[in-house]
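Record type: ASSEMBLY
Status: queued
Input:
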Amino acid sequence: MGFLHEFLQQMVNGLSLGSIYALLALGYTMVYGIVKLINFAHGDILMLGAFGGFFVLAAYGVTPLTFVLALLVGMIVCAVVGIVIEKTCYKPLRNAPRINALITAIGVSIFIENGARVVKVIGPNPKEFPTFKTVNFPIGDVNISQIQIIVFVVSIALMFLLTYIVNHTKLGKAMRAVSFDRPAAYLMGINVDWIISFTFALGSALAAAAGILFASAYPQVEPYMGIIPGLKAFVAAVLGGIGSIPGAMLGGFIMGIAETLTKGFISSQLADAIAFGILILILVVKPSGILGKNVSEKV
Amino acid sequence: MLKNRLLLAGIILVLVFSLISGCNESKTIKIGTIQPISGQVSAYGIQTRDAIAMAIEEINANGGVLGKKLELIVEDDEASPEKTTNAFKKLTAKDKVVAIIGALTSKCTLAITKEAQAKKVVLITSSSTNDTVTDAGEFIFRACYNDSFQGQVNAKFAYETLKARRAAILYDITNDYSKGLMSNFKAKFEELGGQIVAIESYSTGDKDFNAQLTKIKASQPEVLFIPDYYSTISLIAKQVRGQGMTIPMMGGDGWDEITNNAGDEVIGCYYSNHYSPDSDDEDVKAFVTKFREKYNITPNALAALGYDAAYILADAIEKAGSLDPVKIQQAMMETDKKMVTGYIRFNEKRNPVKSAVMLKVVKGADGKLTTEYAGTVNP
Amino acid sequence: MKKNIANGLTLAAIAVVFTGILAALVYIGVIDEYTAQILTLAGINIIVALSLNLISGFTGQLALGHAGFMAVGAYTTAVCIMKFNFPMLLAILTSGLVTAVFGLIIGFPTLRLRGDYLAIVTLGFGEIIRVIMINLEQITGGAAGLKGIPSFTEDILLAPALSMLWVFSVMIITIILMSNLIKSSYGRAVLSVREDEIAANSMGINVFYYKMYAFTISAFIAGVGGGLYAPFFGYLNPTMFNFLKSVDFLVIVVLGGMGSITGTVIAGFVLTYLQEFLRFLRDYRLVIYPLLLIFIMLFRPSGLMGNREISILALWQRLFKSDRTQSKVDKAGERQ
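Status: finished
Output:
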């Protein structure tokens, strides 16, 4: 096995991982774009989505049909959870100092994690996630498993769907308007509260899908599983330019590839450090991210 | 008015003093145990606590120790060294226990060994396998074998029984247990004449091992040694097979309970353990039956070790004939008895000298995974 | 001005006497070793929580990596004592300085920007510092931890009292320094940054400079807190400084009131004690803490104390001189 082959193999691993980060980063970026809040609980929504899928697959077995069902159930449940969190915890603080909203977000995140640990049906111990039997498709020397393909295809499809919603529907237009200037959007007759809730629902549904894909690729679910992907997806969102939807996708793929290449060619220990190295670097060099726009402060 | 108050104060004083003096002449012998009842490894902590409690109950039912009943005081350490230290202070300063069983994880035990030694408190840990745990001094004992022995056992088994000459290792660099096993496996395997073709690492909580496994596969090993806990193993095993590697995997006692927590990928893999619940041994059978009856669950190796630790301690107190820690310590050193996890004697470093069991994961008749005895490796 | 000094001196004198009595009670055994342990631990928690309050409560920048700063301080002290034979005081000061340097490095790229990058970068720092500690095995003992760190004294009978004396003294110094800092022009500038960055900027206050100033001092104090932690426990393990530890400090600050020194001190004692007392709650504690955070933010964002303080001197005057100098007291009260 030569260097080139190993490099290609790591690229395949990276693309698969990156598409999950991209899905998750989309949620961060949309929420940040619309309410300027880092939703720390986003990674934990991923965990809830994965458990949603887990219960469906555990009950009905793994077939392509149940997998789609698991995706749907996970996404719907998490969309509802997203709305509930937004309505109960974030909405009352929309005009409070930002640090208060951030602390609440941290609180929500820890509450979901540890709440899941004490709930009987989830519990603290890792559970095996039911998934397809691995089938490998060797292309030359490079091995691609069908799970990697599923992960990649499903996330790309969801990203297209999201792009369509945001760019070509009335709802999407309203979302962009609220994100651009909330008071003006309100004056134009847009139901701002509803749009914000919808954004949370959309972001959470994507996180749930990411969770189920993540759990299919790394078949284990446990309450703390969302923390690290959540952090990395946040870095991906900042890297791509927070608030920018194509930026989040780009950032996600870059993060995924950077991580597997670091693991493969430098040191697996550095994989997490690299993520934050990238964050610091981007904050120093171009805080607005790769595809983000520089916005001047308004008084 | 004043008189009444004085009287009341006097009564309270008398009551308090009688209470205090009553405490001093306690009718029980207090044993403390520090276990992670909550937190990351609570599943282990709870079973160990239950096993210790069961042992104490048995001992009390058989007349207790030195004519007195044993009283178990359980403290939760949440698997945090800080909380362990607090619990240790509580047990020694407030409860004034005679000896302590604990803690469960090595990092927690290491946080209290120095003080236990300085205060002359007999401490026996049931399951802290880190080599340096007993270094603090003569009052620190353990009921399990240590990491270096377990690493060597696996190396010996891989080289002699599996006839492997090329081994790869994948270990958790953030976990001292995993690291200890890794270095000792490596040393022994190379000493025997084998070759370690790849050593890769990851951190606790990692989910994606494909990058490391790609490298390992490229080095063409005949056996893969993964010293970690079962939850991670089940994840790694899937990815190992996903990469198309069919070589056997091996591990240490952290694999205990793998059969309930992994898929068919682990069939044909081996791990070392302290005991096998399916053993024909009389002591093991009695212990397993009783534990199942009481708690409705098959005891894992840590439970067996906790049970043994309680008996080692109780026997030593009985033999010492007093609650003097120095005498108890001497009696502990003279332990020489067949127990659930094997024949126990302590060496000069207060580590038990006992053999390890190698188990093989197989598919049982009922279609579920189970283990099969694959050999005993002696020290 | 004179009054400030008098206030400070009185406070210091009362505190010294109080600490001395407490330590003596521990030494003669009236306060048992376990209680002493909890009180001392509370002292360390308060020191670190105060440092967090400086950056999050007074400056309005959320930081989530104070356990990481503590880790830097703790390991620095341990290494200074064990490898270089530094005297205790020098080792602890060094750990504060080293941590402050880390604060500078992290603060520089993040505090330039508006937005909440500090929260996420400090969170990342807290995680990475653990990885670094684990990998620097020669220095830190790696994942197995660092054993045998010398205590404040090797005399086992004296150790609890002396630890408490050290920690409480540092805690009192921190309280006095911080309350003076807040009252200084620097402190006022820092507060203005919290209230409105843009307004502060247009008033000629260098927002970046003051944020860096507060953050570096915060890191220094957290490092000192960590520096006390090492000899107090005698054993360090990278997992002792995880994210949940940072959250513990955040809960103390939020419960006590962001921007209240007194609140942090009270909440620090109460929560540290409750953690021991509420063991029976087991894992539920980890559910109650975040709920506490959420509910305080939703219903009483000012915490127990808001940004009010209790001043011992004002209390003293109110109790004993209330008849004669009523008008003076009122003025003093306004100023608090």
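Annotation: The mean pLDDT of chain A is 89.
Annotation: Chain A has eleven helices and four strands.
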